[in-house]
Design a protein that fits this description.
With 219 residues, this protein is an all-alpha fold. The chain contains 11 helices and no strands.
Length: 219
C-alpha cells in the first residue's frame, strides 16, 4: 500500500531486463491453475524433504561430517530452485531481484525459521536451542562481513563474485575437516572436559554436578 524506494529499484530492473518482452508475451496462469500448481509443488517438496531428513543419519554414518552436511549439502539441495532463479535473473541484468532471492531466504531463516524450530521443539518436547558452536558463529560473522563489504558500494563485478565463491569453497573445506559435534564441542563444560581429557581435569564433584545440571536445564 505504501510506495517505497524498493518499488523504484524493482521497476528500474524490470525495464532493464533483457528478456522482459519475452516474459510479457508468455501465457499467464489463472488463479486456479496457480493454486493447483503451488499445492502440487508444496506436496512434492514436503515429501522429498521428509525423505531427505530420514536419510541424514545414514549419510553421516557413511562418513560425511555433520557440519558439511548442514552448511553445504542440505542448503544446495533445498535452495536449488532459488539458486537457479537468482542466476537467471543476474544473467538478465536484474541484479537487485537476484540479490533479494539470495539474501531474503537467509534473513527468513535467521529471524523466522530458526526461532520457529525452537518453539516447535519445545512444544514437542525435543531439546532444541540456539546455542551454536563457536565454529558456526565465526562462519556466520565471516559471511556477513564479506557480503556486506561487497554490497555497500552498490556495484559489483566478476572479481567480487569470484572472491565470494572462493570464500564459499574455504567454508566448505573447513566444515569438511571440522570434527563432528560429538567429537569436539566448542561450548559448555562438556567441551572443556572433552578437550582437556579426563586425566587432566580436577573438579569438585558437587561443583561439577551443579554445572552439569545448569547445562542440562535441570537446575
Amino acid at each position: 500500500s505504501q510506495h517505497s524506494v524498493f518499488h523504484e529499484v524493482i521497476e528500474t530492473d524490470e525495464h532493464g531486463d533483457l528478456d522482459r518482452e519475452e516474459d510479457q508475451a508468455r501465457m499467464k496462469y489463472t488463479g486456479t491453475e496457480t493454486t493447483v500448481a503451488l499445492t502440487v509443488s508444496l506436496t512434492l517438496s514436503t515429501t522429498l524433504l521428509i525423505y531427505l531428513v530420514e536419510q541424514i543419519e545414514a549419510v553421516v554414518h557413511s562418513g560425511v561430517p555433520d557440519q558439511f552436511l548442514g552448511l553445504i549439502l542440505l542448503p544446495l539441495v533445498e535452495k536449488a530452485a532459488e539458486h537457479l532463479t537468482a542466476i537467471d535473473e543476474a544473467y538478465d541484468g536484474v541484479i537487485n531481484v537476484a540479490l533479494f532471492h539470495c539474501l531474503g531466504p537467509s534473513i527468513q531463516t535467521a529471524l523466522f525459521n530458526g526461532p520457529l524450530v525452537v518453539i516447535v521443539g519445545w512444544i514437542l518436547g525435543k531439546p532444541m536451542d540456539l546455542n551454536f558452536e563457536i565454529f558456526m558463529i565465526v562462519l556466520v560473522v565471516l559471511g556477513i562481513l564479506v557480503v556486506g563489504n561487497f554490497l555497500r558500494d552498490g556495484e559489483t563485478n566478476w572479481l567480487e563474485g569470484a572472491l565470494l565463491v572462493v570464500v564459499y569453497v574455504i567454508i566448505a573445506i573447513a566444515s569438511w575437516y571440522y570434527p563432528n559435534p560429538d567429537v569436539a564441542t566448542s561450548n559448555g563444560i562438556e567441551g572443556l572436559v572433552a578437550l582437556a581429557g579426563p586425566k587432566h581435569v580436577t573438579v569438585d564433584r558437587a561443583l561439577l554436578k551443579d554445572l552439569l545440571s545448569m547445562v542440562n536445564g535441570d537446575a
